[in-house]
Amino acid sequence: IARAIIAMGHQLGMTVIANGVESQAQLGFLRRNDCDVFQGYLFGEPMSADAAGMTLRRRYLRPEAFAETRPDRTLLLLDDEENVLRSLVRLFRRDGYRILAAGNVRDAFDLLAINDVQVILSDQRMSDMSGTEFLGRVKMLYPDTIRLVLSGYTDLNTVTDAINRGAIYRFLTKPWNDDELRKHIHQAFRTYEEQRRSNAGPAPVESGEGGEDRPAR
Hints:
By secondary structure, the chain is α/β, with parallel strands linked by helices. The chain has eight helices and nine strands. It is 43% helix and 17% strand. The longest helix is centred in the C-terminal third of the chain and has 23 residues, at 178-200.
């Protein structure tokens, strides 16, 4: 709904203002969808007119509200079993990725909202939502992400259907082989980067001497 309202406002040539922004997750989602102005508890609690005037004169806003990092390779891990999650973090740490770990779906969505995530690895069987359902929702919000699910053989039909719908890029079986799992994640990042290059299109050309075209430098 928020994305539709922002897009509609911009199509009408209007400035879109989001009121009631209370968390980094909300701010991150709105920024990624090109909302223009934000206000709410994240930037300042209710205050008197005098206090508001002083804040404006000092030109002060909470700096953490605008902090944003964009590492090249960020991996989000989702599993509601703490031991499994720790094992996955240890496994991928050696590959130099920036690793975000979530023990539930809500935390995973919050992390997605405030971070640029390229690859997501989710468990299939979780208490609050299945991995395929979670990744299906992620596809609608963050379609450029590469989404993988860890699944037991008993979930094969469900996961296959999710692949056919484009919700997930690949499913990986439990128990996993460490080396193979690392290779799959590495390939997922490669796939993401190839898609970005493809979407960027060919390099522009500029006209050279004699009317010939040459690649731009």
